[in-house]
Amino acid sequence: MEKVGVLSDKKTVINVLTEGKKLANELKSQLHPTTTSREACDVLLESILSSYENAITLLALIGNGASSQIAAGKLFEPPNSMEGSEGSNHNSKDQVQNSKKRKSLPRWSEHVRVCSGTGSEGQIDDGYNWRKYGQKDILGANHPRAYYRCTHRNTQGCLATKQVQRADEDPMMFEVIYRGKHSCRQERLRQKKERKEEEMQQEQVMMKTNSKAFSFPQNDLFPAADTVTNSLLGPTYSPSFLSPATSDSYFSLSPCPVNDFGIALSLHTSDSDFAEIISNPTPAMDFTFRDLDLSFDDAVSFESHFLDALDYLH
DNA sequence: GGCATTTGACCCAC
DNA sequence: GTGGGTCAAATGCC
Q1: Span A70-88, mean pLDDT?
Q2: Three-state SS for A233?
Q3: Who among residues 126-165 of A has its Cβ near strand C, under 7 Å?
Q4: Which residues does the UniProt record annotate as the domain WRKY (predicted)?
Q5: What string of DSSP letters covers A137-168?
Q6: pLDDT tens-digit profile of A198-214?
Q7: Structural contact between residues A108 and A248, judged by C-beta atoms closer than 8 angstroms
Q8: Which residues neighbour A62 within 8 Å (Cβ) at sequence distance 6 or greater?
Q9: Is strand B within 7 Å of residue A103 (CB)?
Q10: Which nucleotides of C are covered by protein (CB under 7 A)?
Q11: This prediction's pTM
């Protein structure tokens, strides 16, 4: 039976590495002198690095005979968190016991209140593709809680999940709890899109500001341009909003009538969990390549490493 | 046939 | 022991 688990793990690793290879090839073409797009390269690089991280973690787990952890969704978590909280002096029995324990809740979560006019939680569009994997009646709640995971869990090892529950007090309101961070490609495309939109918004505000012959005094009536931009944009509740330092923070945002922009944001932080975040950084967490100077040779090197890994697995 | 959803059973933390 | 989270077989849809 264990052999079956290892085989399916191997398949997952191959999927992850294949994805990385594809991305490396794409990057290779993007780096062509005439078609170079810095942003596109950034997005691809982040995807490639994430694939590497995922594959390495998978291989490490398989090497330790930990396929059950992969099947149980404990993949891609920091190695030290896998070993329990006893430190380095625990015995092998403890290791076995800990490996069977359900991992404590992920590093961060978001509590989002969404006012949905559709009346169906499945139609809440947050920009990601989700697959429902369970539903549960919750004690004391009038409505069941639905469990969703990222569609790209198997193909890209993305462990993001969310829970959606209709609010008791207002049936038209849904409470959405996000858990885990997207490491899939759609997250990167989304971030890229958001960056572009943000830049466009800033440009528009700057143009408007400049078009007025003289600048207004900066006070409550005439806030600075960047303040206006941030207000207009509202919270970007993609995981990129949460740095590792705020990884266990969660915030609530209500697109329902709350303020002039229809969005309210509150941030909550847990100090104890904050310490845990620092001690257990997630490998693929918030890696940015904006300052990285990458050459064509680097991209080729990426690809050759992926090919080696794939050859080894096949 | 492939993919998504449903739902009862199982596992684990408290 | 209980409740919440996840698994996986069954089922439905395209």
Answers
A1: 36
A2: helix
A3: 133-134, 136, 138-140, 145, 147, 149, 161, 163
A4: 119-183
A5: PPTT-SSPEEEEEETTHHHH----EEEEEE-S
A6: 777 777 766 665 554 43
A7: yes
A8: A6, A9, A10, A13, A70
A9: yes
A10: 2-8
A11: 0.48
